Amino acid sequence: MNVTMTIAGSDSGGGAGIQADLKTFQELNTFGTSAITALTAQNTLGVTGVHAAPPEFVLAQIDAVLADFEVQAIKTGMLFSAEIIEVVAKRMADYQGVLVVDPVMIAKGGASLLQQQAVAAMRSQLLPVATVITPNIPEAEVLSGLKIATVADMAAAAQVLLDLGVKNVVMKGGHSQEVLARDYVFLADGRRFSMATPRIDTPNTHGTGCTFSAALTAFVAQGLALPEAMVEAKRFIHLGIVHDLHLGHGHGPTNHFAYQQQKGECEVDCVWA
Questions:
Q1: Number of domains in the chain
Q2: Is the backbone of residue 165 left (phi > 0), alpha (psi -120 to 50) or beta?
Q3: pLDDT per residue as tens digits for the range 128-166
Q4: DSSP SS3 for 33
Q5: CATH code, domain with 220
Q6: In sequence order, which residues have a C-beta less than 8 Å from that of residue 148 and are 6 or more positions away?
Q7: What amino acid positions are annotated as catalytic residues?
Q8: Which position among 10, 27, 32, 141 has the lowest Cβ density within 10 Å, counted as fewest Cβ atoms?
């Protein structure tokens, strides 16, 4: 049995964070473990409270898991503070598996999930030990310091992230103005490709970033090469958005059951540069 791990915050509404990650791991036949960085009081309407875990207890959770399990792949989500990022990055520097960093900064309802001073720690300490980072456009703008309006801007921002030490970049295009939902991938060996699915007009996209990065983590843990794992993760999240659950009164969650229910049947248009 392949083992995965998520280091992230708890979403009491179940659509994002640890809850979304563990659902995704389960759906993709990996044994999910976790280290909780923060508790959030939230639902589909927004976040009403955040209670961060002490950094030393975040580290204790990580060490407890890694001391007992052979973890093939780890993802990070909401890390909240510079202090938490520092202990996670230090521990991940010794980790030999795949590390997927989802640089969670803002909740779907607009609440901040990353303190401002934590951005510098993410850039200087976490990115250099990451196998792949999966920012959306606003997150990539913050991390790169560049404004992104075109594909060329995406490439320039990705290069900044690569120069910071991360090995691979998936620049998610959900916030772009393209007709298709097209993500751009920049690999460590210099190759580039894009992957696109039809754009879905729906408010029910809570937890899409968490779910995509968790699916990527699970597929890598199963042994897929990074490009193939990225495409399958794109397929997983697209099906979750198309077959949404219509839960809550705000930005509803994606459907983590959809990939298995639909047997992964979804066309992803891949174009290599």
A1: 1
A2: left
A3: 999 999 999 999 999 999 999 999 999 999 999 999 999
A4: strand
A5: 3.40.1190.20
A6: 137, 140, 141, 154, 157
A7: 172, 205, 207-210
A8: 141
Mean pLDDT for the chain? 94
The reply to whether the predicted model has a pTM over 0.90 is yes
Sheet with 168-171: strands ordered across: 46-52, 31-43, 3-11, 73-76, 98-101, 132-133, 168-171, 180-186, 192-198, 269-272
**Residue holding tokens 């999930």?**
113
Name the H helices within 145-188: 151-163
User: What average pLDDT does the segment 113-128 reach?
Assistant: 89
Vertex 57 angle, CA 51 and 63, to 5° = 140
188, 132 Cβ separation under 8 angstroms: no
Six-digit token string for 121:
């720690």
118's CB contacts (< 8 A; 6+ apart) are: 79, 80, 81, 82, 84, 85
Query: Domain residues for 120?
Result: 3-272
pLDDT digits (tens, 9 = 90+) for 212-255: 999 999 999 999 999 999 999 999 999 999 999 999 999 999 99
CA–CA separation, 180 and 127 (whole Å): 29
Distance of alpha carbon 61 from the chain centroid: 20
